[in-house]
Design brief:
By secondary structure, this protein is α/β, with parallel strands linked by helices. It is 32% helix and 25% strand. Strands 6-7-8-3-9-10 form a six-stranded mixed β-sheet, with helices on both faces. Strands 2-1-4-5 form a four-stranded antiparallel β-sheet, with helices on one face. A hairpin with a 2-residue loop joins strand 1 and strand 2.
């Protein structure tokens, strides 16, 4: 890390313990064709925590997430899950342990909510194991957790943006993986729905002990919900660690080219970013 490193002591003080990381990136370089997008990234995500990646558009957040989900093959370095190289794991085995919700997913026309959520059970199916009572329970539990049970028989495309997003999250929950990666799960949602979605995701991490890695654009939402926050710029990690250590005027300038004041929320103690206004105030 060039500018800052993860503050393990701060994390231990907040949670009481530091768990062994489930998902790791070590010396990870990723790109498309011959163009390198992500450079020499070291990152770890711990159980029971939400790790949030932030940074300007095009900085490599989604590319990094795709590599961690095995959608993209590294140019060099490695992504490991419980010490095993994810790119050497059988696909179905990995899908039972790690789930990815990509940015802007679209459901097939006419699909009902129950049908969509049920697709999360696909990794658990085989020629010798068809739909079971365990699958039904997992789907029911996921729909209840995401608060979409009342929409069970409705078409996904008939729902609002926030309702649809909760349905996709329910599908990921039905997969019952210990590691969940989400790319921009709050994009295009109004502020209240963003908070609702992130509250749900944090509860999943806390109550189920799951490892979440989330890409977000909204810096203050990220600071509010992250256990670990990671700032990226030009494919490199600028800073990572607890929000109160990472969200600083210096790191915002280095990561976003943003001049801002950082204050502490009087209720939560979390940092809040107040961008400076260029020119005369209106």
């Amino acid at each position: 890390m060039k500018h800052a490193t993860a503050d393990i002591d701060a994390l231990a003080n907040r949670t009481g313990t530091v768990s062994a990381p489930r998902l790791r990136a070590d010396g990870l370089c990723v790109g498309y064709a011959a163009k390198r997008i992500v450079h020499d990234v070291d990152l770890q995500a711990n159980p029971g925590e939400v790790t949030i990646l932030v940074g300007p558009n095009g900085c490599g957040k989604s590319t990094l997430l795709k590599a961690m989900a095995r959608v993209l093959k590294p140019m060099s370095g490695m992504v490991s899950l419980d010490g095993k190289n994810v790119h050497q794991m059988p696909t179905r085995n990995l899908a039972r342990q790690l789930a990815l919700l990509p940015q802007g997913p679209v459901a097939p026309e006419g699909l009902t909510v129950h049908e969509l959520v049920s697709q999360g059970r696909f990794p658990h199916q085989s020629l010798t194991r068809q739909w079971s009572a365990e699958d039904s329970r997992a789907v029911s539990d996921a729909m209840q957790a995401a608060d979409v049970t009342e929409f069970s028989d409705r078409r996904v495309d008939s729902l609002s943006g926030g309702q649809r997003q909760r349905c996709w999250i329910a599908m990921v929950l039905a997969q019952e993986t210990d590691v969940i990666l989400l790319d921009e799960p709050t994009t295009f949602l109004d502020l209240k729905v963003q908070v609702d979605v992130m509250t749900l995701l944090r509860a999943i991490a806390r109550e189920k002990g799951r490892t979440l890695v989330v890409v977000l654009h909204e810096l203050n939402i990220a600071a509010m919900f992250a256990d670990q926050i990671v700032i990226m710029r030009n494919g490199r990690l600028i800073a990572q660690g607890a929000p109160e250590r990472v969200i600083t005027t210096e790191n915002l300038a280095a990561g976003f080219g943003l001049q801002a004041t950082v204050i502490k929320d009087p209720v939560t103690g979390r940092p809040v970013c107040l961008p400076a206004i260029a020119g005369p105030a209106i």
